[in-house]
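Priority: low. Protein: Endoribonuclease YbeY. Input follows.
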Amino acid sequence: MLEVNILDKKWCSIIENPKNFVLGVINASLKELKIDHYKPNISIALADDDLLHQLNLKFREMDKPTNVLSFPYEQLSNECDLGDIAISIDTIKRESHEYYIPILAHIAHMLVHGLLHLLGYDHQKKDEEIIMKNLEREILASLGYNMCAI
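Result:
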């Protein structure tokens, strides 16, 4: 089951129906990765910089907000609790403006990025980063978005 929690009303001023948008991106990503049959449980928090700052400080010891954080729980299996994704509308808006990225494309990118982290992908090493970026590019292309470089 996919659960979307809108924790900041700014999301509704950017996207007409944020829950449907998020569900569409996540479901299409799972399908593109050919793992949609597992039906994992994922919770997505559509939040703001305040929450992402708190989470980033608590879990990563980084005293600043960030665009997306992922909290994996279980490895992928049938109806597993895959984990949580939190995404900040404030950082997304700022980055979209700063890097001239369409905001919906950037939101989709960060959702895909967060999902890949839940699935165990990382970008700490160059070879891992290449694999993760290629997957992001493929998934975003399947959604009709070009990969935006940040």
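The longest helix spans residues 126-142. The CA atoms of residues 38 and 77 lie 6 Å apart.
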